[in-house]
Design a protein that fits this description.
- The chain has about 160 residues and is of the alpha+beta class.
- The protein contains five helices and four strands; from the N terminus they run βαββαβααα.
- Strands 2-3-1-4 form a four-stranded antiparallel β-sheet, sandwiched between helices.
- About 25% of the residues are buried.
- The model has no long low-confidence stretch (mean pLDDT about 90).
Length: about 160
């Protein structure tokens, strides 16, 4: 659309269903490349992506052509299908319902990129749950504990 100018930076976080440690080091690069393709094909500019066994972070310059919820639906659905079709896991792979999406200013780009790329070191000191609650606190987001990513449950 002519004369449309935006600067929208979004840090996205979502978990493997029941926060199971299913993302393996042997294929996490392929997963991240696949998600990168989904984002680029939808006109978003990926600034950083990194995963842990039980969750994933990415940071994008958001295209105004697509809502955050549509972007995340495509990423989560597409990457789940990719993981299952490639046979990366013994059990069917699912992302947990929900996500975190946090806006950032241009001046915060370097800090958010470093934060995402430093996930492995960061999680040597903190669990995903602790990290996620800290992010919610930092952004002053009110939440209901019953909707925070669920622990492993009997299926």
């Amino acid at each position: 659309m002519p004369n449309t100018y935006t600067q929208l930076y979004i840090h996205c976080v979502f978990a493997v269903k029941y926060r199971q440690a299913m993302i393996q080091a042997e294929w996490e690069d392929r997963l991240q490349m696949y998600i990168t393709g989904i984002l680029q094909n939808n006109k978003h500019k990926l600034l950083a992506i990194n995963s842990m066994p039980d969750h994933l972070h990415f940071f994008v310059g958001l295209s105004p052509d697509q809502s955050i919820s549509d972007m995340l639906r495509l990423v989560k659905t597409g990457s789940s299908v990719f993981i299952n079709n490639e046979g990366f896991t013994k059990r069917k792979f699912h992302w947990q319902d929900g996500y975190g999406a946090f806006s950032n200013s241009r001046s915060q780009i370097d800090g958010v990129v470093k934060y995402i790329l430093n996930q492995k070191h960061h999680h040597s000191k903190m669990t995903f749950r602790e990290e996620y609650l800290e992010i919610l606190k930092d952004y002053a987001i009110e939440y209901d504990e019953k909707y925070i990513f669920h622990e492993l449950l009997d299926e």
